[in-house]
Structures are given as C-alpha cells and as structure tokens.
Amino acid sequence: MTQKDFIPNLEPKNISPGEVSWQSPSNIALVKYWGKKENQIPANPSISFTLDNCKSTTTLKFSKKDEITGTAEFDFDFYFEGKQKEDFKPKITKFFQRIEQYCPYLKDFSFEIHSENSFPHSSGIASSASGMSAIALCLMDMERKLYPEFSDEYFTKKASFLARLGSGSASRSIDGGLVVWGEHKDIEGSSDEYAVAYPYKVHEIFRNYKDTILLVDKGEKQVSSTVGHDLMHGHPFAENRFRQANDNLKALIPVLESGDTTEFIKIVESEALTLHAMMMSSQPYFILMKPNTLQILNKIWEYRDKTGIPVCFTLDAGANVHVLYPENHETKILEFINNELVVYCQNGHYICDHVGDGAKKLYF
Length: 364
Ligand code: PMV
What we know:
Blueprint: E1 18-31, E2 36-37, E3 41-42, E4 46-64, E5 75-80, E6 83-84, H1 89-99, E7 109-117, H2 128-146, H3 152-166, E8 178-181, E9 195-197, E10 210-214, H4 225-230, H5 238-258, H6 261-280, H7 291-307, E11 312-315, E12 321-325, H8 330-341, E13 350-354, E14 360-362
This protein binds (3R)-3-hydroxy-3-methyl-5-(phosphonooxy)pentanoic acid (PMV).
(3R)-3-hydroxy-3-methyl-5-(phosphonooxy)pentanoic acid binds near residues 126, 128 and 169.
C-alpha cells in the first residue's frame, strides 16, 4: 500500500455522536530509528519489541459539528489523566494538520480526547509512541464507522501510517511481538510508510522476552526527538550509520530464528551505544547518559561475564536503561537488579515489562 491508498475516495456515512477507546503499548527499539527525511520517512529501517505494561489508554469522543455554527478549524479538547491540558494541544493540532489529507473528515467533527498512561508521567519514558498510536487507532475506529467497507489489514496499516505521522516510533506500537518500520530489502512487506509485524520465524526465547526499565533519570528529555533526528542532517557519520542499521537488521534475521542470544546481545547493545555515539558526535553534541547509566552498563557486563546469563541492555534517547533478558532467567535477574542496580535508579524505581501482543480495543 502507498500513501495514496490511505486517502478515502468514498462519501462518508452520517454517524451519530459516539466514543471509541483503545489501549496502545510503548515499544523498545532493538535497531534504532534515528534520523528522518521529509514527512516522517525514516532514514533507516528499525525493529522493536512491543511492550505490554507501559501503555496509554485513550478515548475519543466525537460528534458532527453543526453545519451552520461549526467552524472550519480542528475542534478538540484534550484531557490527560482527567485534567484538561492546553499545553498538549499544539502537538495534536500539528498531528491533525499532518494527517488531514488522509482523514478529510477531521474538521467536520468536534472531539474530546481523554488519555492516560500506565507509567508515571515523569519517568523519562517517552509517551509519544503509546499516546500517538492510541489516538491513531481511535481515529481509525471512528473512520471505520464513516467508511464501513474497509478491511482489517487496511485498518492496521493505516493506523500505523497515521501514528507514524504523529511520532515515527509510534508506527511500531500497533502490532505485537517484533515490529519492523522502514523499508528493508530482506524483509518482505516492510515499508517506510507504516510498520509491519516481523514476518519471519522467531525463536521461542524471544516470544516473551523481559524488559525491566531502570529509571535513572525521570526528568524531561534533554533533547527532544525532533531536535535529535535533525542532528543527523549533515552529521559526519550519518551515511555509515544508516548503512549499519540496515546491516544490523539483516544480521538479526538468522539470530531471531535461531535464538542465538550471544549474537543478539552484540547487535542490540551496539545499536544502543551507537545511538548515543551519534548524539555525542553531532553538532551541537549531547551526552544523554548519566554516571549511573554507565554504572549499570558496567554491572550488567560484569554480571553476564560472571554468570553466563544472557542479559543485556538497550537505551532510548535518555539515561534510563532497558534490561533485556529471556523469561526463564527472571528470578535471577530481578534478584540482581534489586541487589546491585536499584541503587542507581532514581528513588529506587524500575518498571517490569515484557513483550506484548499489541494494541487492544476497549469496550465499556
Ligand atoms: O518516534 P520518535 O521521533 O520519538 O523517535 C524515537 C527514537 C528512538 O526512541 C531513540 C529510537 C527508536 O527507534 O524508537
């Protein structure tokens, strides 16, 4: 499917006021998306684990505007955790502007959007992936009422497509398990426009992989994703980095099939450090890791050497550490985290998560 396929060409049905609710998870990239072209097209393909516990729950209430008194503007109120939030509105207005040509009905409706996250707002966990994908899913659910003919495949792809226009990584929060976004010549069906469920064989070990997120720094992000992606324009290592991401994704295919955790770790940790290396070597440059981040990484390496347990880390564009490990080592790793890593977490906080099934519609 191409972006043209996402422009409705039928007359919308008349629908009564209503509401739809979706729960959408966060995701953690194994091969990172860092750098984009025009219109949120990624500079390289990425792959992520969909999470389960870290999620946004969003309700979209809609009613058709009065044809006489209604304005030709986007009309919506946004509530976060029950409170009306004016400061979130510009981001959603921008999102609506970006998707308007694919959702031409937007200005015909008044909306109320209610959203909440399962994780604390100030946890340093980006909520844009779960939040934007949840709104995209709610819009698609409403769109299904306007144009009842479309297929489930269209629903999922367009939801991911719209989510991508809100926040690139949000495109990977619709499906469960492993999800790929960005065209890769060895991954059938992969696309720059939307994410797809990883289409090849995945070893049992990666089906319920654990991700314990150590909250090292719960502050606001020092570098927003927008600024971050921009740093890759004119970056001296950009082209090599984009090539490396393609190579790493290719190298992951046999690893995901065989369950080779040694190779998995090499790729995933290198991706995390490369993401940070890109930030350290851009102009202006940033160090987003904190001293405690490094303490944790060293402890993980030490523990892995000592025990042979295939535990590794990955990082987002921040100081928090995602500790990744197979389910059967959970007891041991949680013991290790409690004994040796919790001291490096802000107020001793961490979040236990694992690979999840993807977004879900809620019925009340
Ligand atoms: O979706 P954005 O624009 O917030 O970018 C996310 C970038 C990383 O989280 C650092 C990497 C990724 O692939 O998720």
